[in-house]
Amino acid sequence: MVYLDNAATVPLLPSVRKAMHEAEEKFFANASALHTPGHLAMNKIEECRVVLAEMIGAEPGEIIFTSGATESNNTVIRTFEGHVIECSPMEHHSILEAARLYHGDKLPKLYSYMLYNNETGEKLELPVRDDSSFVHSDLTQTLGKVAINVKDLGLDYATFSAHKIGGPIGVGALYVRNGMLFKPLLVGGNQEHKRRGGTYNTVAIAGFLAALQYARDNKTWDIYNQSVRKLRDALAKRILAEIPGSSLNTDVSHGESLPNILNVSFEAAEGESIQLYLDAEGVVVSTGSACAAGDGKPSHVLMAKTGDAEIAHSSVRFSFGLDNTMADVERVMDVLPGVIDRLQKISTIKRS
Amino acid sequence: MEGQDWVYSDKVKDHFLNPRNFLMGDESKFDYDAVGQVGNPICGDQMRMYIKVGRDKKGREIIEDVRWKTYGCASAIASTSALSELCKGRALDAALKIGAKDIDDYLGNLPKHKFHCSVLGHDALKEAIENFRKKSS
């Protein structure tokens, strides 16, 4: 199998699996308990907090563990219930839906802009905070791919997720700058200094820690920027050269996008069909087609970017991880031209 | 459903991977009497059915042969393929009675949110037959 859906989930790193098995055995106790097993579990959690804080240029006390990016995003937006909330149109639904529910007209205002988009990989310009505004950024796709310093970025809040860097699904974090407004989403427990109720998810946090250590020790952002970028760019080049009717939705020039994401539209070929024909050939990708989403709407990101529903329905996202090789690019190009050619030939749409 | 590694049933998968009666490339390759089209690329699904009408031994008009094209998802491809198999050789009136549910049954059920794909196929065939009747009346 050639797995190119790493922007959705990165496979668990071996060191993460090991750390989680160890945590299941050694750190099973409730981390809030004052006895020794509880204390050992808490140590693991605090270790993760310190590692993440150091990686992003924050203080450990500014990190809150959550169940993942959706919870982190929801928490920030709901903190600003009744306030003016301005989001980029490229935001994840966990921002957009929450903003729709909670926005109002009070100041200070909250900006929510992701740094890099999950579908196209493209970089967004972050707003600058002033006396009457705060800035949140969803850094779910950024972590591990590009070095992060939340202070340099001028952020008040930031969202992180473990499963995009080889950690487990179901754990993430929220950076809240010291002194910022904050309203817990989950109440009824003293965990996380009363900022997030619920028993500490020690095993998942131990996995998150191992994934962060892997990223830190290997400087994964350098690997993405160099070798992974080469794979992404090689695929882009070959697709454009060898597949008629293809167009890139990702600006692959340096500094404009994450180095591991390539979003492409194929004229007259529908995305879900492309995805499933590729799946049958052992090539795993994702699509912005409405059919795949199941809600009848094509990707809001591609709609915001291009305004063209056919481009959105015909889009495929290839997202690379650290395990991919040039042989994977070759395998994709062994099957993709045939898949697209066949779909274009049976299509009701004539290529222009 | 346990152990099934695909999002669709085996029958849907078979019709998706090996579609029957589709029209590859230019439509001049098939000698048809009428065509029907529904949907549009904006919604993500468009289907077109081409029918060749003949007569059976009793002199009734039947769908002698059929081809189709689609811009659509896996269920759109599979349901149009299934419909093409179901309608071939049938009298026009009988072919008109092939409903979305017949297609869904034949395929061993599409996922719920994909049922509309089989409706589209039925509508495209209906339009092709109506166009044929308009033309020949």
List keywords for this structure.
heterodimer; A: 352 residues; alpha/beta; Aspartate Aminotransferase, domain 2; Aspartate Aminotransferase, domain 1; six-stranded mixed beta sheet; four-stranded antiparallel beta sheet; 13 helices; 12 strands; globular; B: 137 residues; alpha+beta; Sufe protein. Chain: A; three-stranded antiparallel beta sheet; 5 helices; 41% helix
How is this fold's topology laid out?
The complex is a heterodimer of chains A (352) and B (137).
Chain A: E1 2-3, H1 14-26, H2 36-56, E2 63-66, H3 69-79, E3 83-87, H4 93-102, E4 106-112, E5 133-138, H5 150-153, E6 157-161, E7 172-176, H6 191-194, H7 202-218, H8 220-242, E8 246-248, E9 261-266, H9 271-280, E10 283-284, E11 286-287, H10 290-293, H11 300-306, H12 309-313, E12 315-319, H13 326-345
Parallel strand pairs in A: 1-10, 3-4, 4-5, 5-6
Antiparallel strand pairs in A: 2-7, 6-7, 8-9, 9-12, 11-12
Helix pairs in contact in A: 1-7, 2-7, 3-4, 7-8, 8-13, 9-13
Chain B: H1 10-17, E1 34-40, E2 45-55, E3 61-71, H2 74-87, H3 92-96, H4 100-106, H5 115-136
Antiparallel strand pairs in B: 1-2, 2-3
- The backbone outline of chain A, from C-alpha atoms, is globular
Which chains have the largest interface? A-B, 24 and 28 residues
Beta-strand proportion of chain A:
5-15%
| Residue windows where pLDDT falls under 50 for at least 5 positions of chain B | none
CATH structural architecture of chain B = Alpha-Beta Complex
Provide the CATH superfamily of the largest domain in chain A.
Type I PLP-dependent aspartate aminotransferase-like (Major domain)
Largest sheet properties of chain B: 3 strands, antiparallel
Question: Quaternary status of these chains?
Answer: heterodimer
